Amino acid sequence: MNVDAVSAVFREVLEISEVNADSDFFVMGGDSLLATRVLSAVARATGVELEFDDLLDAPTPNALSKKIAEAA
Amino acid sequence: MKAFSETVRLHPDRPAVTRHDRTVTYTELDAWVRATARRLGPDPGVVGVLTSRSPDTVAALLGVLAAGGVYCPIDPAYPWPRREAMIAASGCRAVIGEPGSAVPPGVRLTRLPGPADPPAAGFTAVAADDPAYILFTSGSTGEPKPVVTPRGAISVVTAGLRELFGITPDDRVLQFASLNWDTCLEEILPALTSGATLVFHDHAYSGSLRRMLRMIDAERITVLDLPTAFWHELVHHLTAERAALPPSVRLVVVGGEAVNPVRLADWRALGLGAVRLLNTYGCTETTLITHAVDLHGPHTPESGPAGPLEGGPDDRVPIGRPLPHVVERITEDGELLVGGPALALGYRDRPEATAERFTELDAAPEDGGPGDGPRRWFRTGDRVSRRPDGALLHEGRLDHQLKVRGVRVDPGEVEAQIAGHPRVGAVAVVGVPVAGHTTLAAYVVPRSPAMTASLAGEVLAYLREHVPAHLVPHRITVVPELVHTASGKVDRAGSHRRYQSAAV
């Protein structure tokens, strides 16, 4: 999943338009509940089942995209 | 504890608690509880327990109660100042935890014994108004308020919930709720006084709903008790991913905040007619659940397109009718008052806060009639109205309290904590909706204008060292001044309106 695709997931889940490659999911209002939607979307697109701690660790589209690539 | 002992006698070899490959039978759990009681000694006072998602915490909880003590859960992930304040405010004399865990001077740290350690011969006798546990709720002063719940309250509520949930020895109840608030006791106590099995599993808390659903299937979970906000996400997942709820599940209990009628309509479209969906309401001060209503499934006569609970976007979902042990009254302001044997004793060492929320009123004709004498009531702070069928609708709060991920948060508590930072002059905290969830945002005025740079980051770091994660605002914006009302008070909503666009 590339950075743009992850950014699109953030936009859809947070219902905001201003997301860039370095936007922090949690600073933009994401919480552990909305995180489940990000994880479900990633799993649907890539088959990679990340956990909440992975998103805490990699909270931006840039970092999360790398994490997905590593896990795939 | 009498109900637990009776269950041990009836179901000695059934599994009581499991986690992954480990199973503890009722006989083994009973021995473990007695060993814990012996380690603590009779009447150990308030005992803090550093919680973990494992059968250990169940043994510690029941062991403290068996010894005649008062259980007080403490999240080891909380920052140290918070843990220290909780231990002091609850009056803990001993803490059960791993060797090396931090405790304040003068507090005894005790390791949990193993199931095979020497057991106490019997349980310490207690009275119905002896305290059973202390849990904290958010207070407006910056200090959490320790709620003291008596033994009699948990006995009557546990019996009521066994009945409400229809728990049998065949049930397998998932342990999902945080161990730091009271909801987990809805899972633990009815299960372990019925011969049912309480199931811990790491996949319940990982954040991956795919893993969680696979685990529910593999573990043959029959009962789920979920914070409403989490259930909303589960419904979203089942709908969007066309995933199935495992067929083992027969009962889903939700509570903590208002059920979204759109999500309820989505749930009803999933074809889960055999699964009972139960909405519940209650406060820590009134012990677990006081009101409940079936929203879908085999117990719902109203279900179906002609029923009053259609789940359209404009419908509001009721919080329920009072359980048999509950008496309720609605004041002229619309505030819900709750009375009956499940009321907490009050807030420990806070007589003023206790007097403000626990009030004595003469009985009205509808709740027992004249001659019943004055009755003690808890003022819930929730405004409600009654539907023609008797179920209550939630109309809002009388104070500024918010629900953040299902947890009560007083913005005043977060403001008081932020005001403790030496470079903060003034602060307003508001609840902000993000994609339908309430999150916290803070507007901070520096004590001196020269201090603007880096203040937001400093306040964030300060909070992370002092308060649990649910009290840390996701966004802290430094502003030149707050908006005030005509009477000179800080206008939280007005401050948010003026600055929200600057806060991205």
Automatic annotation (TrEMBL), chain A:
SMART domains (UniProt xref): PKS_PP
Keywords on record: Phosphopantetheine, Phosphoprotein
UniProt cross-references to Pfam families, sorted A to Z: PP-binding (PF00550)
InterPro entries for this protein: ACP-like_sf, PKS_PP-bd, PP-bd_ACP
GO molecular function, one term: phosphopantetheine binding
Superkingdom assignment: Bacteria
Domain Carrier positions: 1-72
Protein name (record): Acyl carrier protein
Organism: Nonomuraea montanisoli
